[in-house]
Write a structure and sequence with these properties.
Length: 164
């Protein structure tokens, strides 16, 4: 299903986070000497975009989805994901992840994003009318105003190196 224009800002941010996840997976196993650079990038991504993204989803999208009713269980799962992911982002900020934990984080974040895109957004588009989606889009514009609207550029340490 085509994404409704009112949900596109979140989908763009999802793509940014997925790009980070793919880069982590392609670099795995990450040498312990490079883990700190990756953790710094993860933490930067949280500070510049993800913290605003989570807050917007929780205050705008999840509230709207709860009004639909049948999405309550899914919203509960997504809120639990947010809590666990916030802990992992905090661990990255503190430099407290190993290479293996970083890979597991990327897998968890990727699965969470796909759940939102494939389940939540699809059902919201099916169950909400154009007026409701438009109202949601306006609220998202306000909620996301402080987020950086660009992919984080890899540092020299996290840039993919070509195979020799």
């Amino acid at each position: 299903m085509l994404r409704d224009k009112n949900l596109i800002p979140l989908s763009h941010q999802h793509r940014h986070a997925l790009a980070l996840c793919v880069r982590i997976e392609r670099a795995s196993p990450i040498a312990e000497s490079e883990v700190a650079a990756w953790l710094a990038e993860v933490a930067q991504h949280f500070r510049s975009e993800v913290q605003f993204h989570f807050a917007a989803e929780e205050s705008v999208v999840f509230r709207a989805a709860r009004r639909v009713g049948e999405l309550d269980t899914l919203i509960d799962e997504l809120l639990a994901d947010h809590a666990a992911l916030r802990e992992q982002f905090a661990s990255a900020e503190a430099g407290g992840m190993t290479s293996a934990e970083l890979s597991l984080f990327a897998q968890r974040l990727s699965a969470h994003i796909r759940k939102e895109e494939r389940q939540l957004f699809e059902r919201m588009q099916e169950l909400m009318d154009a007026r409701e989606l438009s109202s949601l889009g306006q609220a998202l514009d306000v909620a996301l105003k402080d987020a950086v609207d660009a992919c984080i550029l890899p540092s020299a340490a996290t840039r993919r190196r070509s195979a020799k």
